[in-house]
Amino acid sequence: MGVGVIVVTGIPGVGKTTVMKRAAEGMDIEFVTFGTVMSDIAIKTNLVKDRDEMRKLSLEQQRTLQIKTAEKVGKMKNVIVDTHCTVKTPKGYMPGLPEWVLKKLNPTAIVIVEADPKEIFNRRAKDATRNRDPDTVEKIAEHQMMNRAAAMAYATLTGATVKIVFNHDNALDEAVKEASPVLQ
Hints:
Low-confidence stretches: none
Distance between the termini: 11 Å
């Protein structure tokens, strides 16, 4: 039967990919990143040459791509979808999973990976491989709160469960243990 579609989300620097990939080790569960699948479709259909061009597409083109991506991923039976619950913009928070995406994905569970905002702040400061917008500890806490609210709204629309998994520093094994029941 399988686990269906499981959405994993968390703010940048929380370690959502690390936790869920480790939790799924040895299981027959595919791991995909929504944005990567979306850019692959855009490249194959000659809308863009690379992922960086996607932000230049019209809103209608982006929405069409989101729907095609959600249809493709939604047909998978054992899949963890790495994506963003909310997207922080200068104008405020946007839903990472608009209604037209949710309906096609139809997730069975939404996993939010969180950590102490100070831990995330420090992880971001040490990560020279990324060019993230600077955030205060308070803004990181706010973003995590917005993710919780959005996840429950998404669950209301889909009937999915919401599981919060804490990924504290030096406690990856505990986070993996918390996430594992969702994959059963």
